[in-house]
Amino acid sequence: QVSGLVFLAALIFYVLWMRGFDPGEGMGAYLIARNWIQSGTLGSLTKIWHWQTLGIDGLYYDAHDSGSSIAMLPFAYLQATLALALPKFEGLNYPFAGLWASLVAAGTIWGEYSLLRALGIARARAMGVSAALCCGTQLWTYSRDTNDVLLVAFWYVWAAYHVVRNHSRPNFKSLAAATACLGGAILTRTPAVIGLPVLGFSILAIYPKARERLRALALVTIVLLPFALWQLRFNYLRGGNPLLPAIATAKYNGGLAFEY
Fold it and tell me: What letter does residue 66 receive in the DSSP assignment?
């Protein structure tokens, strides 16, 4: 499949430019994911990363949303498993955190190419646009640092792809996939909820009958419910208020910072 080759080419490109470690958000997400695996809780007894805040249960939680730490779990588990077999492996400065960013960036290119093809863009032109996005935009920079911005872009582009697929051939499977991708984006950054109205408009455009719209809205609600419950509980544990997002915590200038 050409789309698979696009992903592979982008991954090779990003891996060649990979730092091999991540001194910023990636390290924090990795440490929190590793603690989660070891202790069974998302919070830590002590502050293991400087960007943590004390929760109402006495544990320290990431001041960011939890999506990046959740996505880092497989990599933290893999490194923890290898460290048990090879104790010196634990001291390799978290190499999988850097690889994570390369994989997510390549997955974003893959999704963007798939989206263009779903929109009817010719293969050669879609490949050209994908190459430009890969190495001619800030995505290249973000591929070297595990950042929640990168993960939101990944979820958004795949959500758009499934929306387009649902528009060309209406089916609840594509709608559920688009909703799940949007849920992943919201877990990563709460402001990603701005994608919900777009999903709502797509339902109105795709399903002309009231009964179909109600079924579609019911499906969206069911798929989003676990994401919403998780986010509300995480907000409550971290700040004592389920409706208090990360941007409103003390880490963000008392809630006055709009970029996080």
Answer: S
